[in-house]
Amino acid sequence: MSRYPEEALGLSGGLSGFSWGEPTMTELHTAYVYALAHLANLGDRSALKLKRLFATYDDWLAKAPSDRRAKIEEAIGARYATHVATNWDDLIEQALKELRRHQSENISVLTIDDACYPRLLRTIPDPPLVLFVRGSVDSLTQSMNLAVVGTRDSTPRGEEVAARIARFFGTRGFSIVSGLAKGIDTAAHRGALDADARTVAVFGTPLNKIYPAENKTLAEEILRANGSWVSEIPLLRRPNRNSFVQRDRIQSGISIAVIPVQTDVQGGTMHTVEFAERQNRLIFCPRPLNGQQHNKQYAGIAALIESKRAIPFQSEDYATVLDRLRAHSDILERSAKGKPSQPPTPTRPGRPPVPSRNRQPSASPQETAVQDKVIQQLMETFDSLGLSDNQDTFDAAIGIIRKKLYGRRRSTPKPGLKPVEDSNLQIFKARLSKPIDQTVFTQKWRERSGGIEVRFRIKGTDLTAIHTRTLWDPSSSPGSEGFFNVLQMALHDVARDCTVVDCEEVTNVNA
């Protein structure tokens, strides 16, 4: 029989004021979750499974030992059952001692059940059962969080951009999240402090071990500015080589979006990006300036933009990015209400997830902001109609709407038959003097052409354009520039030294 009472254990707002007499129900619950996470010799996934199986210590005690062991074997395997199913009085006692050590060092302990545990973090596939926080817990929960991260091997220009981003969003109600590392992380924290904004440092070590040591002064400034330090590693534990990778999921998990400023194609920043993708977080990348895009510090940024995994932006897009962040925050918060965390999806360590074959090209910041607002309005409508409660009902409703709007789906033309419209189309092919970004070029084309829509495809230095033949003939539109002249001006807007090396017009669209 347990030496602790078996009444239902209350859930609270975190362990910050810990009693030194008999433990309260709240303290027992915190000790129970702490023991699952750090004393029961379980892996993170196994601890999370048991927490879902036995939500409170009262649930644990309510089961007969034989029933408890059977459920444990079914959930995580027989080899853990003997150890985990017994000896819990001793584990709870040890947990209470270690929790009091944290309280003596002004460290708040938040379990996944606590009201002040970050809501967005609770919904990721593999949330930490326990978070340790020194400083302001409100900095995690009372404002929107934005992660600004990047390489330790940064350039002065990259650090300047990171600080500017942190200042802009910090003055607009965001807490700036980063990892306290040298380089971009340091610049992001400094930018937030310069703007009198809150900033959150996510540690890959226990909170009594500041890493790197040279950032001790910066870390202390963060606390004085009402920011916080966060870790999932308790005191007296040593981090392992995977600890910094695991902390990256917390950086993205507590944030609405991640902004990698500089990074190579591999490294900790890319881990944060991969976690952000799994967690449905937005990813923005500041577009490198001409002359710097070939630096190794921008290799990862270029890859993210080119693969459409990130939305590029420039300083004039800050306001649009801000609108998009606020809209996405509303979407995430709505989905987080009452939503339990999902079981973690197994992935190979160190290997990025396979991109979806159906990934759509990223739209401009303006277009995506409109999309988010539309999605938010649709979700509110679905909720009000009760369609979000049942997937079958939802699918049936969407099917009816699609049929009423568009009728039957168009059949695919038979091979060999050419649509009538194709007779008025023409292909223009060109070889450029250097590769350029298709998204930026398309935007410049629209500005130069007055909004004339042309289908462009740019792969390396090969450019292909498809439009009606009238575009090639300036006489068809009096006062307009010819296609080739507009093309050259748009190329010049993207890169001053980019020109057409060779080109040809193909009158047959199927050529």
How would you sum up this structure in a few lines?
By secondary structure, the protein is α/β, with parallel strands linked by helices. Helices cover 43% and strands 13% of the residues.
Task: Describe this protein's structure.
The chain has 511 residues and is an alpha/beta fold. The protein has 19 helices and 13 strands. The strands form two sheets. A nine-stranded mixed sheet has the order 1-2-6-5-4-3-7-8-9, sandwiched between helices. A four-stranded antiparallel sheet has the order 11-12-10-13, with no helix packed on it. Helix 1 packs across helix 6, helix 2 (44-53) crosses helix 4 and helix 15 (318-336) runs parallel beside helix 16 (365-385).
Q: How helical, in percent, are the residues?
A: 40-55%
The radius of gyration is: 28 Å
The beta-strand count equals 13
Largest sheet geometry = 9 strands, mixed
**Oligomerization:** single chain
Strand arrangement within the widest β-sheet reads: 1-2-6-5-4-3-7-8-9
Q: Average pLDDT across residues?
A: 79
Total number of helices: 19
Which outline best applies? Answer: globular
Q: What fraction strand?
A: 5-15%
Distance between the termini: 82 Å
Strand-pairing-aware structural class = alpha/beta
* Uncertain spans: 4-13, 16-20, 340-362, 409-423, 469-481, 507-511
